[in-house]
Amino acid sequence: MTIDWMHFTPWTSLAGGALIGTAAAAFILINGRITAISGIVAGVLTPRSGDQGWRLAFIAGLIAAPSLWLTFAPQIEVHVEAGTAALFAAGLLVGIGARYGSGCTSGHGICGVARLSRRSLMATATFMLTGFATVYLLRHVFAGLL
Amino acid sequence: MSIFSSFITGLVFGLGLILSGMANPGKVVSFLDLAGNWDPSLAFVMGGAVTVAFFAFRAAGRRSRSLGESDPGCTLARNRCAADPGQRHVRNRLGGCRLLPRPGAGFTRHRASQGADLFGCNACWNAALQLS
């Protein structure tokens, strides 16, 4: 294992994480809900008795963030090493997995782990480990074949 | 449920994602690439977020209702479910529970009573949380 010191950003990542944690904190304390992105989006797509407003407002805030950022700060770096078909397939898998596992990196990974939920710890360990395995296979085992 | 607080929370969450570098899929993949040029940043994002959220959830657990309680839909009595999905009941989403255990299904509190097998693959799966 070699550490990529060029791209490793401990302080901004820690600060960004604290900001994410602050959002999750505000959400549970003010709105009494878990900040679970996949669940919030899923709730919009499967409408039930009028709880759409806050979901749409949250998503709007999320989407507005890059514009606000770009007003005051430099370009946002985005690297995607995949074609359209791969992205489509990956997005589908992520979506199915997040719903089937009842949560994603925000609901399980941050909120669930923070409340020491055993199921969330299990889910987070599972998607992290399968993530490690998938990247290992794609980059180091089958790299020549794909 | 306050529209305004939801919007601001989404905004702060999004800014956190950008600041932390997690809006960049390449950086996330670099974290997952242990055998390559490893970028540990994601662990710091999780660490920062979980540390802050941990204290918030502890504080929330001591309250009987959320701060935005004016909305009757958002008293913590109801939201205890959100704060503690373990209380929520149980639904099997795919029906075919023989094949795919859900993450953590073996940990549900029904385990003792129903005698989950090695993969937690029986009716207790229905207890898999509906965290949303």
Short description:
Chain A is mainly alpha-helical and 146 residues long. Chain A is built from six helices and one strand; from the N terminus they run βαααααα. Chain B is mostly helical and 132 residues long.
Structural class given helices, strands, pairing of chain B? mainly alpha
Shape of chain B: elongated
Number of strands of chain B: 1
What's the pLDDT, averaged over the residues of chain B? 68
List the helices and strands and how they pair.
The complex is a heterodimer of chains A (146) and B (132).
Chain A: E1 2-3, H1 10-31, H2 37-45, H3 52-72, H4 84-100, H5 105-114, H6 118-141
Helix pairs in contact in A: 2-3, 5-6
Chain B: H1 3-20, H2 25-32, E1 37-38, H3 41-62, H4 76-83, H5 111-114
What does this structure look like?
- The complex is a heterodimer of chains A (about 150) and B (about 130).
- Chain A is about 70% helix and about 0% strand.
- Chain A has six helices and one strand, in the order βαααααα.
- Chain A has helices at about 10-30, 35-45, 50-70, 85-100, 105-115, 120-140, and one strand at about 1-5.
- Chain A starts with a strand and ends in a 5-residue tail after the last helix.
- The model of chain A has no long low-confidence stretch (mean pLDDT about 90).
- Mean pLDDT of chain B is about 70; it is low at about 70-100 and about 105-130.
- The longest helix of chain B has 22 residues, at about 40-60.
- Chain B is built from five helices and one strand; from the N terminus they run ααβααα.
- Chain B has helices spanning about 5-20, 25-30, 40-60, 75-85, 110-115, and one strand at about 35-40.
- The chains are: A mainly alpha (about 150), B mainly alpha (about 130).
- At the A-B interface, strand 1, helix 1, helix 2, helix 3 and helix 5 of A face helix 1, helix 2, strand 1, helix 3 and helix 4 of B.
- Strand 1 of chain A pairs parallel with strand 1 of chain B, so a sheet runs across the interface.
